[in-house]
Design brief:
CATH class of the largest domain: Alpha Beta
Structural class: alpha/beta
Order of helices and strands: EHEHEHEHEHEEHHH
CATH superfamily of the largest domain: Response regulator
Strand order of the largest sheet: 2-1-3-4-5
CATH topology of the largest domain: Rossmann fold
Number of helices: 8
Protein backbone atom coordinates (compact mmCIF):
# COMPACT_ATOMS: atom_id res chain seq x y z
CA UNK A 1 0.00 0.00 0.00
CA UNK A 2 1.35 3.41 -1.01
CA UNK A 3 2.24 5.68 1.88
CA UNK A 4 0.12 8.83 2.00
CA UNK A 5 1.89 12.06 1.10
CA UNK A 6 1.92 14.86 3.67
CA UNK A 7 0.34 18.28 3.27
CA UNK A 8 0.67 21.37 5.44
CA UNK A 9 -2.23 23.84 5.23
CA UNK A 10 -1.57 27.35 6.55
CA UNK A 11 -4.45 29.81 6.98
CA UNK A 12 -5.51 32.13 9.77
CA UNK A 13 -9.18 31.30 9.09
CA UNK A 14 -10.32 28.00 10.61
CA UNK A 15 -13.17 27.77 8.09
CA UNK A 16 -10.73 27.71 5.17
CA UNK A 17 -8.63 25.00 6.82
CA UNK A 18 -11.74 22.90 7.45
CA UNK A 19 -12.80 23.13 3.80
CA UNK A 20 -9.40 22.04 2.50
CA UNK A 21 -9.08 19.25 5.06
CA UNK A 22 -12.51 17.91 4.05
CA UNK A 23 -11.46 17.93 0.38
CA UNK A 24 -8.06 16.28 0.83
CA UNK A 25 -8.09 14.14 3.99
CA UNK A 26 -8.99 10.88 2.21
CA UNK A 27 -5.90 11.01 0.00
CA UNK A 28 -3.29 12.77 2.14
CA UNK A 29 -1.94 13.15 5.66
CA UNK A 30 -2.70 16.71 6.71
CA UNK A 31 -1.26 19.10 9.30
CA UNK A 32 -2.47 22.66 9.77
CA UNK A 33 -1.18 25.95 11.14
CA UNK A 34 -3.04 29.23 11.74
CA UNK A 35 -0.04 31.57 11.69
CA UNK A 36 3.29 31.95 9.95
CA UNK A 37 5.51 31.14 12.92
CA UNK A 38 3.76 27.84 13.56
CA UNK A 39 3.87 27.06 9.83
CA UNK A 40 7.66 27.34 9.77
CA UNK A 41 7.95 25.17 12.89
CA UNK A 42 5.73 22.42 11.46
CA UNK A 43 7.47 22.53 8.09
CA UNK A 44 10.88 21.99 9.72
CA UNK A 45 9.55 19.26 12.01
CA UNK A 46 7.30 17.27 9.65
CA UNK A 47 8.85 18.03 6.23
CA UNK A 48 5.58 17.94 4.29
CA UNK A 49 5.54 17.02 0.62
CA UNK A 50 3.59 20.17 -0.23
CA UNK A 51 2.50 23.37 1.57
CA UNK A 52 -0.73 25.30 0.92
CA UNK A 53 -0.05 28.79 2.22
CA UNK A 54 -2.43 31.71 2.69
CA UNK A 55 -0.95 35.05 1.66
CA UNK A 56 -2.91 37.43 3.88
CA UNK A 57 -2.28 36.61 7.55
CA UNK A 58 -1.58 38.79 10.59
CA UNK A 59 1.93 39.14 12.07
CA UNK A 60 3.64 37.17 9.29
CA UNK A 61 2.14 37.07 5.79
CA UNK A 62 2.50 34.26 3.32
CA UNK A 63 5.27 35.97 1.37
CA UNK A 64 7.41 36.19 4.49
CA UNK A 65 6.72 32.58 5.41
CA UNK A 66 7.66 31.47 1.90
CA UNK A 67 10.87 33.48 2.02
CA UNK A 68 11.85 31.90 5.35
CA UNK A 69 11.12 28.36 4.15
CA UNK A 70 13.10 28.83 0.92
CA UNK A 71 16.05 30.13 2.94
CA UNK A 72 16.23 26.93 5.01
CA UNK A 73 18.20 24.03 3.52
CA UNK A 74 15.81 21.46 4.97
CA UNK A 75 12.62 23.04 3.54
CA UNK A 76 13.78 24.92 0.44
CA UNK A 77 12.64 22.22 -2.00
CA UNK A 78 9.11 21.79 -0.62
CA UNK A 79 6.62 23.05 -3.24
CA UNK A 80 4.37 25.88 -2.03
CA UNK A 81 0.92 26.73 -3.40
CA UNK A 82 -0.33 30.15 -2.35
CA UNK A 83 -3.93 30.62 -1.25
CA UNK A 84 -5.57 33.95 -2.06
CA UNK A 85 -9.07 35.35 -2.22
CA UNK A 86 -10.41 36.54 -5.53
CA UNK A 87 -10.98 39.95 -3.96
CA UNK A 88 -7.40 40.20 -2.63
CA UNK A 89 -4.63 41.83 -4.61
CA UNK A 90 -1.85 39.30 -5.32
CA UNK A 91 1.55 40.02 -6.76
CA UNK A 92 1.82 37.02 -9.07
CA UNK A 93 5.34 37.84 -10.22
CA UNK A 94 6.51 38.18 -6.63
CA UNK A 95 4.89 34.88 -5.71
CA UNK A 96 6.80 32.93 -8.32
CA UNK A 97 9.99 34.90 -7.70
CA UNK A 98 9.90 33.83 -4.05
CA UNK A 99 9.62 30.18 -5.11
CA UNK A 100 5.91 29.34 -5.12
CA UNK A 101 4.90 26.80 -7.76
CA UNK A 102 1.24 27.80 -8.11
CA UNK A 103 -1.74 29.48 -6.44
CA UNK A 104 -5.43 28.75 -5.86
CA UNK A 105 -8.21 31.20 -5.10
CA UNK A 106 -10.97 31.38 -2.52
CA UNK A 107 -13.76 30.35 -2.61
CA UNK A 108 -12.24 26.95 -3.41
CA UNK A 109 -13.14 24.88 -6.43
CA UNK A 110 -12.86 21.24 -5.27
CA UNK A 111 -11.73 19.99 -8.70
CA UNK A 112 -9.14 22.75 -9.03
CA UNK A 113 -7.74 22.19 -5.54
CA UNK A 114 -7.39 18.43 -6.02
CA UNK A 115 -5.91 18.80 -9.51
CA UNK A 116 -3.31 21.39 -8.47
CA UNK A 117 -2.23 19.40 -5.42
CA UNK A 118 -1.98 16.15 -7.38
CA UNK A 119 -0.04 17.80 -10.23
CA UNK A 120 2.59 19.43 -8.04
CA UNK A 121 3.08 16.35 -5.90
CA UNK A 122 3.67 14.32 -9.07
CA UNK A 123 6.17 16.93 -10.28
CA UNK A 124 7.99 16.80 -6.94
CA UNK A 125 8.18 13.01 -7.10
CA UNK A 126 9.62 13.19 -10.62
CA UNK A 127 12.16 15.82 -9.57
CA UNK A 128 13.22 13.71 -6.59
CA UNK A 129 13.74 10.68 -8.81
CA UNK A 130 15.73 12.73 -11.30
CA UNK A 131 17.88 14.17 -8.50
CA UNK A 132 18.56 10.67 -7.19
CA UNK A 133 19.54 9.46 -10.66
CA UNK A 134 21.82 12.45 -11.12
CA UNK A 135 23.45 11.84 -7.74
CA UNK A 136 23.96 8.16 -8.61
CA UNK A 137 25.45 9.14 -11.98
CA UNK A 138 27.82 11.65 -10.37
CA UNK A 139 28.91 8.99 -7.87
CA UNK A 140 29.48 6.47 -10.68
CA UNK A 141 31.55 8.99 -12.66
CA UNK A 142 33.66 9.76 -9.58
CA UNK A 143 34.24 6.05 -8.97
CA UNK A 144 35.24 5.53 -12.60
CA UNK A 145 37.68 8.44 -12.41
CA UNK A 146 39.24 6.94 -9.27
CA UNK A 147 39.46 3.51 -10.93
CA UNK A 148 41.03 5.00 -14.06
CA UNK A 149 43.54 6.96 -11.98
CA UNK A 150 44.47 3.81 -10.06
CA UNK A 151 44.77 1.86 -13.30
CA UNK A 152 47.05 4.55 -14.75
CA UNK A 153 49.19 4.46 -11.62
CA UNK A 154 49.51 0.67 -11.72
CA UNK A 155 50.34 0.69 -15.44
CA UNK A 156 53.04 3.27 -14.75
CA UNK A 157 54.51 1.11 -11.98
CA UNK A 158 54.42 -1.95 -14.23
CA UNK A 159 56.10 -0.12 -17.09
CA UNK A 160 58.80 1.16 -14.76
CA UNK A 161 59.37 -2.31 -13.38
CA UNK A 162 59.56 -3.80 -16.89
CA UNK A 163 62.01 -1.10 -17.93
CA UNK A 164 64.25 -1.94 -15.00
CA UNK A 165 64.07 -5.65 -15.78
CA UNK A 166 64.90 -5.05 -19.44
CA UNK A 167 67.92 -2.90 -18.65
CA UNK A 168 70.17 -5.87 -17.87
CA UNK A 169 68.35 -8.65 -19.66
CA UNK A 170 69.55 -10.47 -22.73
CA UNK A 171 72.98 -11.70 -23.88
CA UNK A 172 75.96 -9.65 -22.62
CA UNK A 173 79.28 -9.99 -24.50
CA UNK A 174 81.99 -10.27 -21.84
CA UNK A 175 85.75 -10.65 -22.25
CA UNK A 176 86.93 -14.07 -21.10
CA UNK A 177 90.17 -12.59 -19.80
CA UNK A 178 89.61 -9.10 -18.35
CA UNK A 179 85.83 -9.54 -17.88
CA UNK A 180 84.97 -6.24 -19.55
CA UNK A 181 81.49 -5.96 -21.09
CA UNK A 182 80.86 -4.72 -24.63
CA UNK A 183 77.95 -2.27 -24.95
CA UNK A 184 75.61 -1.78 -27.92
CA UNK A 185 77.96 0.80 -29.46
CA UNK A 186 80.89 -1.64 -29.49
CA UNK A 187 82.79 -0.11 -26.57
CA UNK A 188 84.26 -2.27 -23.83
CA UNK A 189 83.33 -1.19 -20.29
CA UNK A 190 84.38 -2.18 -16.84
CA UNK A 191 81.74 -4.40 -15.25
CA UNK A 192 80.98 -1.90 -12.49
CA UNK A 193 80.67 1.00 -14.99
CA UNK A 194 78.29 -0.95 -17.20
CA UNK A 195 76.04 -2.27 -14.42
CA UNK A 196 75.99 1.13 -12.73
CA UNK A 197 74.85 2.79 -15.96
CA UNK A 198 71.99 0.38 -16.62
CA UNK A 199 70.72 -0.22 -13.08
CA UNK A 200 70.33 1.42 -9.70
CA UNK A 201 73.13 -0.65 -8.18
CA UNK A 202 75.75 1.23 -6.14
CA UNK A 203 79.25 -0.24 -5.80
CA UNK A 204 81.55 -0.35 -2.78
CA UNK A 205 85.07 -1.34 -3.85
CA UNK A 206 87.36 -3.67 -1.95
CA UNK A 207 89.92 -6.47 -2.57
CA UNK A 208 89.12 -10.13 -2.17
CA UNK A 209 91.58 -12.45 -0.34
CA UNK A 210 92.77 -14.09 -3.60
CA UNK A 211 93.64 -10.71 -5.09
CA UNK A 212 95.41 -9.66 -1.91
CA UNK A 213 97.67 -12.75 -2.19
CA UNK A 214 98.32 -12.04 -5.85
CA UNK A 215 98.88 -8.30 -5.65
CA UNK A 216 100.25 -7.89 -2.13
CA UNK A 217 101.92 -11.18 -1.12
CA UNK A 218 103.85 -9.58 1.75
CA UNK A 219 100.67 -8.20 3.25
CA UNK A 220 98.97 -11.54 2.80
CA UNK A 221 101.81 -13.34 4.62
CA UNK A 222 101.62 -10.93 7.55
CA UNK A 223 97.88 -11.44 7.85
CA UNK A 224 98.36 -15.21 7.90
CA UNK A 225 101.37 -15.10 10.35
CA UNK A 226 100.36 -15.69 14.01
CA UNK A 227 101.24 -12.98 16.59
Amino acid sequence: MKKKEKLLIVDDMTENIDVLVALLKDEYMIAAARNGKRAVELAEKNLPDLIMLDIVMPDMDGYTVCRKLKALEITKNIPIIFITAVSEAMDEAKSFRLGAVDYITKPFSPLTVKARVKTHLALKTSQNKLAQKNAALVHEIEQRKKAEAEQTRLIGQLQEALAQVKQLSGLLPICANCKKIRDDDGYWNQVDDYIGRYSDVKFSHGICPDCVKKLYPDMADKRLRPD
